[in-house]
Amino acid sequence: MAVGSLLVSTPTSPGTPEDSPRPAGRPSPGRMRVGILGVGRAGAVLGAALARAGHPVVAVSAVSDASHERAARLLPGARILEDLDVVAEADLVLFGVPEETLAPLLAGLAAAGAFHPGQVLVHVSARQGIGVFEPVAAAHDVLPLALHPALALAGRAEDVERLSGTAFAVTTLKSLRPLGEALVLEMGGEPVWVEEEDRPAYAAALAAVRDGLEGVLGAASRVLADCGFADPGHTLGPLVASTVDGVFRSSVTRDPAGATEPEEHP
Fold first, then answer.
1. Residues with Cβ < 8 Å from 108, sequence gap 6 or more?
2. Under the phi-then-psi rule, with left for phi > 0, alpha for psi from -120 to 50, and beta for the rest, what region is 141?
3. What is the pTM of this model?
4. Domains of the chain, with CATH numbers?
5. What are the phi and psi torsion angles at 168 (to 5°)?
6. Phi, psi for 5 (deg, rounded to 5)
7. Would you say the C-alpha torsion 193, 199, 203, 206 has a positive or negative sign?
8. DSSP readout, 38-83?
9. CA dist., res. 149 & res. 159, Å (int)
10. Which end of the chain is more exposed for a tag (fewer CB within 10 A), N or C?
11. Do residues 172 and 145 lie in contact, with contact meaning Cβ atoms separated by under 8 Å?
12. Which tens digit of pLDDT belongs to each residue from 154-196?
């Protein structure tokens, strides 16, 4: 599928019927057959979101029992095939594999002649941009995209709904930015452009929040359990929600550079 056939002049907003008026300024990707390599939590959820947007998931590769179960639950109708066969079936290949295995997988597929010109390659790693695609893109004329939702995914059906309004880091060639942003919008997300060199910092910021919350809440839960609380999560849930809400209403997140004095708490 050529680049021109992927971009049409009338953009599609998430949930907008095909015959409804559409705002100008953003192109919409044409309908693409999706293949997924690695049906992990992110791959399964984003694949389901793409399918809901009208891009059918035609084939996936799945090794573990958990991957097979996610494919059956979130991607019904998709055939489970070998990696090479998945790529051959797809206009858009979604890489849901662990970050450390992405480059070797790409090299192996390229050596086998798996890619075809105009094919869209998307990975979901937070830390990596499109540099990992560079050898493949140069040799096979493929279209590289790095799309990452700022959301902890569990690989469940409700995660597809949680993508609504979620920020997605978008990194690609400037000429492909409209395609990347259109795909994010179709999945219900909000595209945010992140430069290639900023991806590691972006990933570190998300990891700091995730790891910090897990560590603090784990320690607090153990202390509360020792104090006799039967359900520490039930106790901590409202506190965490109200604290996070307060932080996002404060200058700490609205203007990080200007938030120099901590607020006093009773």
1. none
2. left
3. 0.79
4. 3-194 (3.40.50.720), 200-258 (no CATH)
5. -115, 130
6. -80, -10
7. negative
8. --SHHHHHHHHHHHHTT--EEEEE--SHHHHHHHHHHSTT-EE--H
9. 11
10. C
11. yes
12. 999 999 999 999 999 999 999 999 999 999 999 999 999 999 9
Report the C-alpha gap between 148 and 172 in whole angstroms: 12
Q: Give dist(CA 134, CA 99) in Å, integer.
A: 16
Residue type, 191: P
Sign of the C-alpha dihedral, residues 26, 32, 36, 39?
A: positive
Q: Count H helices, E strands: the chain?
A: 11, 10
User: Residue for token digits 């179960």?
Assistant: 69
Query: Could you tell me whether strands 34-37 and 92-95 are parallel, antiparallel, or unpaired per DSSP bridges?
Result: parallel
Where on the phi/psi map is residue 118: left (φ > 0), alpha (ψ -120 to 50), or beta? Answer: left
- Separation of alpha carbons 114 and 185, rounded Å: 29
Calculate ∠ Cα 49-55-60, nearest 5°: 80
Task: Put residue 55 in one of left, alpha, beta given phi > 0 → left and psi -120 to 50 → alpha.
Answer: beta
Q: What are the tokens at 85?
A: 């066969």
